Amino acid sequence: MARLVQQPLVMACEGWDSYRLLDSGAGRKWESFGPYSFIRPEPQALWQPRQPDWHADGEFIPGSDEDGGGRWQFTGQFTGRLPDEGWELAWNEVRFTARPTPFRHLQFFPDMAPVWDWMRDQLDGMDAAETMNLFGYTGLGTLALSRHGKVTHVDASKKSVAQARENAVLSGMAERPIRWLTDDAAKFTAREVRRGRRYDGIILDPPKFGRGPEGEVWRLEEHLPGLVTDCAWLLDAESRFLFLTVYAVRMSSLAIAGLLEEALGHLPGVIEHGDLAVCEEGEGGRLLPTAIIARWSNPR
What we know:
Elements: E1 3-4, E2 9-13, E3 19-25, E4 28-33, E5 36-41, E6 58-62, E7 70-74, E8 87-91, E9 94-98, H1 113-122, E10 129-134, H2 140-145, E11 149-155, H3 158-170, E12 178-182, H4 185-195, E13 201-204, E14 209-211, E15 217-219, H5 220-233, E16 241-246, H6 253-264, E17 270-279, E18 287-297
Parallel strand pairs: 1-17, 2-17, 5-6, 10-11, 10-13, 11-12, 13-16
Antiparallel strand pairs: 3-4, 4-5, 6-7, 8-9, 14-15, 16-18, 17-18
């Protein structure tokens, strides 16, 4: 029986050459993405900035709707235009293109770096694992997992899947055994259950709200329990992990840990929960929380 650990944990991104959290505060964060820096909204930065002056190449100005909207303002070489061509960054051997998007992101989520490391640790010693990345976005997690075997990458956005494939080429991983699927994550997972498939590991990073390629509606609070239940059917006592991240919701990590306990409690291993965070640069850098997490692991 999987044991639920009550004490929450923090998985903190310390930054690396391609990404740094330079400062945060007053509802914003200042980050470097390789040679450029940007300012973005961050409601959880309730404190005041440590540095008096932020000089950035662009800033995302939020709209009046708390659930979205807004626009970028660029300075320097990006003045008046979106840098559509992007620029190359890297995490370990994974190479990818960064560029500002209309959704305030830069085509990857740097706070996921410790998650990619953790998943690799769970698969240590395996070179024929079968894993799945649901809501896989631009594929950095998929490429990280591909070191250990076959990966099924699922995302409803054709544009995101296309960018993920471009990142695979950029990384020299185009020939790795990756299934690139533009599909509704919940529908695909249900089909996998009916097919009797199994996986060694699953990562899912669902949005608060979304639409599938055929207009399917996704609402996290409504549809996440069923998806996690289906994911549990794809795992067994020999599987290694399931990792769930949840952003931008008024929910405790205990809630999603309880969901995993209900679905995966019959398997051996450990269920943990807590926060993803990014650590500011410099001595005494603060931890800026970004998401809640719950994970099941079956150590060997």
